[in-house]
Every structure is written in structure tokens, then in C-alpha cells.
Design a protein that fits this description.
546 residues, alpha/beta, six-stranded mixed sheet, elongated, EC 2.10.1.1, MoeA_C_domain_IV, MoCF_biosynth_CS, transferase
Length: 546
Amino acid sequence: MRVFVKDESLHSIEEAIKVYLSSLNFTPKIVEVGVKDSFGYVSAEDLTSPIDYPPFSRSNVDGYALKSSCTPGELKVIDRIGIGEFKEIHVNECVAVEVDTGAMIPMGADAVIKVEDVKVINGDLIKIDRKMTFGQNIGWIGSDIPKNSIILRKGEVISHEKIGLLASLGVSSVKVYEKLKIYLIVTGDELVEPGNSLPQGKIYESNLHYLYSKLKEHYKIVGLSLLRDDIESIKSEIKRAVSVADILILTGGTSAGEKDFVHRAIRELGSIIVHGIKIKPGKPTILGIVNNKPVIGLPGNIVSSMVVFDTVISEILKNLYPSRKEIIGLGKIKARLALGVTADKYRDTLIPVYLFRSIDNFYYALPVKFDSYMVGTFSLTEGYIMLKPNEEIEEGKEVEVNVKKYDDSISIIGEEDKKVLNLDTKNVLLGSLPASKAIEYKFGDIAVTSSLYTRSIENYDKVFCRQILVNGEGDEIGYDDWVGMSKIVKNPVVKLKSPSTIYSLLGKARVYAPEGYIVGNKVAEECLYMVGISERGKRYLNTMKV
């Protein structure tokens, strides 16, 4: 029986995928795997950090912890803290504490001077000839990852960098979707296994080798079969395949030839949802179902298999999971800088960036504050740029970005609030400065700016106001200067990057945070202005209740 696929009845690639996916009732199995074995799996849950990282304010150099206001000058060294040690020391006057790289910073100290920049007068007295800046050589508690912040998204493909982050936070296992089990069947009387002699009229089999090599990295291959053009053999092998696999992929026998038995076998055992796609090569592709399992039939031509795999099969497989809109493998791309950057004076310098598309379809790279201990920042960002020693690149200039992966989900850039913190969006909640740049250059989807940071905000889509509260006594804890609340405390002993980081300091100092984060007395009111930048951002904002 010859079955001709008529051109006028063909689906487009997008239509075929949409129709097929809507016909499937596939639920991937959730399993728990050790973090060290989780590479390439798709996360089945949103996972939050169980701790602040770093879990304490740490020194980034070997040197002396002190108050920056006491420099320059001569300071008495009152104690020493080694890496891994805890000492209840409070620097409340012009003294110094010797610290190792990675050692805990004593409370009250707000800078560390490198040991090579100090002149030792005698055993316990040092001389500092220059002014230290607040926060110099310190990694504040939670400055990389605040406790309870989302570190792994449901539907995210787990990368090597993310494994390093999970381990750094003490996570030993993670819930993932079990890798899809795939069965491969190749049909054709003309096919000969590579390595054997080639009789006249025959060709070497290549589809099985191609598909196996494409699939084995991300999926589990549970069967490989090379069959002759025999309807009963093909039906028997299809039954075997769907009994052990999640998905069956066949090649050959999908067109109108007398020995094209695959489409007949699928119809007799199940149903064909799509037979024929508007693509060349690859027109007679079959998308079917047998025993509620996806069964995909490819033409026997090896080039057709390659084309259909990249345009159709890869999209179907990806969408069988609740996956995020991640683009992996972009390599190096050109992007415009949203903020200026400066390298270390003497060394090549890596700077992590988030990537966004602008409304005129340019990529923008948003560089973030970074130090070498920040495994979280490095693994959560999407790429990085490399600068030569002492190199400076101005805002708006084009740079080359080494892309790890790009999340094309709806993005929210700006101030943190619990109304947006746990939305299933691409959240870059680092303050009003990045938000103002997103508005200026029209990149990303939604910007959230603070009235404390920018007094005059026009053309916003939504606004909500919140009380800023204070809790506790003693040293004042403030915020990074990108954040609106940084305007409240002028000389804090610690600068946090977000209100999510304050919890470890409750009861130990005077902390400020929005209502909903802490209880306390009102000290200010802040309004957050939400601006839809892209059309999809505006549509998303219309669905939000704030």
C-alpha cells in the first residue's frame, strides 16, 4: 500500500510540534540524585539556599581587619583570627586584628589591609600610610548568596558551575526529572553495519550512529535495533520498545514506497498525529503515539535525520520536561555594556554578566560586583567578559561575552521585594541602578526602581509602597549603593546587597528592611515603580497583582 503525503496537507514545523505536544500525555518521573552526579539533569524543583554564603563576613586577603575611619595611622594589633577559627572580638576603637584569607572578620571592622601594605613597628603595633575605603578586601556575610534565595530553578539544566554552587552551600542531593529512556530502530533491506563488507546495491547504516551520538549525552539509550523491511518484525520491535522506553525513534519506512512499513506499523499499533512536515529534506516525518508513548518516524535519508532532529525532535524532547527558556551553546557573542568596568591593575580580570535583549534586538551585558570567593555569583550569571590588566571599558561600549547559557524567560531587573522574589521569572534583583540602566537602554522586560534612589520616576506601569522598618540596637547595617535603602544609613558597618541577607544579623545589630522581612519601627516609606520595557514585559505586568 502506497501512502502519499500531499504537500497541501503538510504542517509547518511549529504547527507540527504544537499539535503533537498537545496530543501527548507524558509525565516525566522525578528521582533524587547526588549533586556530584546531577550534571545534565533537569531540575524538578525550585531549590533555595539553606545558608548565607559566605556564612560569615570574611577576609579576602592576608592582613589586618580594622575600621577604615582609623586610617591612615598607627594601630595596636589586639588579636589574630585564623581560617576556620571563631573568636568573639569586637573592634570598637582604633585597633587591628590580624586575619588570614578566608578568616572571619571581627564585628565592627569594615576593611582589611593587605599584610604587604603594612609597616610593622614592633610585635603588636602597625603603621598604615594610606586611607582605607569602607568594605575594602571584605566579603560580607551573604554578599554572594543570601539564605533562602532561589539557587536552582525548576526546569533548569544543571551545569558544572551549578554543581559547584550546590556543594558550596551544603546541598548533597537534588530532585530531578529522570533522563528520558529512548529506543532507536533503523529499518531497511539496503543497510549494512559499518565494519562489514559492502555488497553491491547496499549502503552502510549511519542513522543509528548519528542518533545515538546526539542523544547519549542527555538521555538514556535503552535499545538499538537494525531491522529488515518486514512489517511483522517492525511491529514486534515497536511493541518491545514502548514497553521499556519513554520514547521510540525510528528511521526509514515513513514515505510512499512499497517497503515503507513503518507508517503502517504505527497505525496498526497506535495512531499517527502528524504525517508530513513542510521541511526539505524531511517531509515524510511521522509523529505518532503507541501505548501512550511518543513514537517518531524519520525518513531513511541521513541528511533528513540530521535536519529533522535539529528542528523538530530536539524541541519535542525538550518540551517533554517543564523546561525553562534556556539557550545553551551560544559561545561568544557581542554585547553592549550596561555599566562601565575596570580590570585589576596587574592581572587579567574576569567579570560575570547577565545577558538581556533590548527592544531593538541587541544584547546587553549587565556586569555584577564580583570577588573570587563568589561561586554563587559566577554560577548564577550567564556569562563573563575578560579584561586585560588595568583595562577600562566605558558603559555602552561593545564587548565579547563568553556565554555559559542564556535564560530568555521574562526578566525582572531592580529592587528586591517578596512580591517578585519567588516569581518564576529571570530575577536580577540587585537594586535601582541596574533597573535605571534597563530603562535607559531599553533592555530586559520589567524594571523595578526605588523612590529612595530616583526621586522623579515617570511613565511607570505599576507602583506599590512599603514601610522600611528598623530592628535592634548597636552597629547599623546598611545596603550596597545600587539599592534604594542605601540612602537611609550613611555609615553602616556592613553593606548588604539585598534585604534577604539580614536574617543572620537580627539581634546582633541595628538592621533595616522592608515590612514583611522583619518586625520593627517605621523609619521611612519607599515606593517601588514597575516599568514594562518590552511588550511581553508589559503583558506580564498586567497579570501581576501588587
